[in-house]
Amino acid sequence: MDALQQLQELDTYMAVEDDDSAALAPANRACPVELPVHMAALPGGKRVPILKTVLTSACERNCYYCAFRAGRDFRRHTFKPEQMAEAFHTLWQAGVVEGLFLSSGVAGGGVRTQDQLLDTAAILREKYAFRGYLHLKLMPGAQEAQVERALQLADRLSVNLEAPTSAALARLAPQKILMEELLAPLQRVEQLRASLSPSFGWNQHMPSSTTQFVVTPDGASDSDLLRASEHLIRRLRLTRVYYAGFSPIRGTPLENNPPENPWRVHRLYQASFLLRDYGFQAEDFPLTPSGALPLNTDPKQAWALRHLAESPLELNRADYHQLLRVPGIGPQRARALIAARRRHRLVQPEDLRALGIPIERAAPFILLAGRRPTHQPRLFW
Description:
It is built from 13 helices and 10 strands. By secondary structure, it is α/β, with parallel strands linked by helices. The longest helix is centred in the N-terminal third of the chain and has 18 residues, at 110-127.
């Protein structure tokens, strides 16, 4: 089996981060097999095709949800750093991909596996002069010197925390240690970004950082997930927190467990964006008694129904952060609204429509010149 066919098999169970969609790379003379190539959204909004793969599907850990877990019966594949770099370089030269997301099973310990990942990245950067997008995983227990080296090679670094608490992690991945193995490398990334010049990082820029939680029906609550996400975004400056809805995999201890409701994952993403971009705090979100986000409405709408329905916001006086709390108004529209009211007072729904603000969403929660704007309510949100 050649390298491209092995990559095809390895990508079968790769978790998706950094993107919202996936497409098969077309077969051609340079790419004789179909490979799952994902469209990654880079800073600035540009989307590029990236290969998501692992250096090895052999793993000594027994994470209960994972297709690569120790003891699961399936064919494993392992690349040497030179082989992986060469295989990716072939795809890059053929124009099939523009970037690489490289992870790995843990084989021979986290430190040894991290060395293999760093060697692969170094070969790509130094031997093949690859200057495109590279997302590199930090392995459990990665050492400080390895984190420093990763900063010099990658555009993005990530550690999958899997769960927000030690108790929840024990139900998913009992061999992993949340604080010492998983959170510590992420903390080290932020310490180095804060203390070193950006020129220390790859291409004169420090890499961004992300993580991923596994969302399960009987696992951590939305409340725990959002509190952890808020800490990661505020204190460790993570660019994004990903939520992977659990899906059972044959041959794992959780193969008979139900899959997670995709609407729950969707609501967690919405809440996470409100934490990152809108100034919300985890405690702001209305939750059920069990600590869950409502599934029948988005978190911003739920907050507004509780806080603004009876006390609507006067748009001619509200500050930027208050405007961000109104459904239908995001950062760009809030700035446009503030600029517009410097020119004239906002008095009609048409004044908002001219700014691209959906009046049907905003109207129940706002005042224009002291009056509630008239609107035709929608039957469904």
